């Protein structure tokens, strides 16, 4: 796995590089700003980019803008965004382009090495890794009538595995069904949740958020 890191905090940037190299991963380049980051992505063509949300010169949304641009230039690039705290608008902007190969984690998760590495590998493998705190904020956009009661038991199983960040092939393997069956279940889920193909946000993300909201509501 080849990785490019974009982080303006030198201590965290080098710490991440050391951690990943110690795990046998190839850190091709590190950058302290959006310009050098995009140049590094274009040159090294990494599998994954780890990007801080706030970078110079204004320390507002440069990281998100750079991440979106990197994905535009290299659609197969997996991106793991790090943020010091939940920034709902930025997360929404990033997710609007689709959830595949995408992660959004709070920086405090880096200290939990196994959790962080698990998220990194999941994103690199085509899945999704969204911080529970970020999910909690995004859930405020969900409608009161989630439509989840319309789902069959099997459809809920599929949705639960989608929430873990699994792709269709992995879901099929986990449930011992064909990938075609998974596609059929997901189409049914979207229909029962009233998620049309024209929705601006990724339907898979919205479905997962509604599922997580329902779990949180039942637990509460």
From TrEMBL:
Signal peptide extent: none
GO molecular function: DNA binding
Any one of the GO BP annotations: phosphorelay signal transduction system
Designated name of the protein: DNA-binding NarL/FixJ family response regulator
HTH luxR-type domain segment(s): 144-211
4-aspartylphosphate carried by residues: 52
Keywords: DNA-binding, Phosphoprotein, Transcription, Transcription regulation
Keyword Phosphoprotein applies: yes
Positions of the Response regulatory domain: 2-122
Taxonomic source organism: Actinoplanes digitatis
Source organism superkingdom: Bacteria
